[in-house]
Amino acid sequence: MKRLTVQAVALAVAISSLAGCDSNAVPVTGSTSSSSSVPAGPTNSSSSVIFAYSADYNDSLIMQYSVDGSSGALGTTPVSSTSDAGSTNTVAVNQKENVLYATEPNANSVSEYNIANTTGTLTHAATIAAGTAPNSITVNATDTYAYVVNRTSGDVYEYSINPNTGLLSQFASISTGGTAPLFLTINPAGTYAYVANTSSGSIAVFSINSTTGALTAVSGSPFSASSAYSVTINPAGTFAYVPTFGGNTVSVYSINASTGGIGAAITNSPFASGTSTRDIEFTPTGTFAYAVNGGNGSNNSGTVTEYSVNTTTGALTSIGTVTGVGDYSNSISINAAGTVAYVVNNWGPAVSEYSINGTTGLLTALGSVPLAGGTTANSIAFAQE
Question: Using an 8 Å Cβ cutoff, are 104 and 84 in contact?
Answer without folding.
Answer: yes
